[in-house]
User: What shape does this take?
Amino acid sequence: MGQTKVSIDGVVRDEQDAVISVFDRGFLYGDSVFEVMRTYGGSRLCGETDHLERLYESARRVLIKMPVSMDVLRKEIATTIEQAGNDESYVRIVVTRGSGPLTYDLSTATQPSRVIVVTPLAVPDPILYEQGVSVSLVRVNRPTDCGTAVGVKASNYLANLLALHEARSRGAYEAIILGSSGAVLEGASSNVFAAHGGVIRTPPPEAGILVGITRQAVERSANALNVNFVETALFPSDLYSADEVFITSSIREVVPVVRVDGKSIANGHPGPITVRLHAEYRKLAQANAL
Assistant: This one.
């Protein structure tokens, strides 16, 4: 039977004993970075190196000094997964700037905190892949849309949460975020792709997206299947007119989108490229090839 375990600064605790100071800047200001991973086969993390490298890069860009080496963090993650003993686990790693006085001054917090949450994985309902989902376009401004934080996986997700709430109020499964120019960026917690004439198109990093680890793996899967993959600007009309649309994330893998703003994509059913890509992605993930 699965359970949740939490490692805080290297000490594994039960869920009810996992506490952190109310003066931690991650709590006060969302001043932290994070990564989310899942296991395949019980304890093997998919794309662990890619996720950890992005975590360290996110921390560097927002001036948080990682408190331990990557090797130490790997061992702490493995220990927490082992003690949780789940069939499959959802793993969330959060690194905050640490605690300090109530001030915006970054220099007042000198001891970053690291938190590893391991909980039983809620596997997505197969119906998502069989029937596809609907998405809704939402225009928002996020803290990571400008400046040095562009593309950083920071914990300040309020704008994303509100965007998702708005999309759900319209009956959609996911929000697709539009930038100030009206271009399609990404989902509230996913990357987005559109297929036209057998070519997969997705927004480039310079658009201000979070370059997902699953997104990178899907590109490799496309190459393995000899499917053309292009990074280019997308606009709402490109989604409405697409042969196929899909979204990706570490937990959900590759999810077909069959409606955008209530408009059916092609015949309103998951497309063949999406289905093939998901099968290839899952095969690679289960074989520890990602």
About this structure: The CA atoms of residues 94 and 207 lie 25 Å apart. The longest helix spans residues 70-84. The two ends are 28 Å apart (CA to CA). Residues 5-120 form a domain with the D-amino Acid Aminotransferase; Chain A, domain 1 fold (CATH 3.30.470.10).
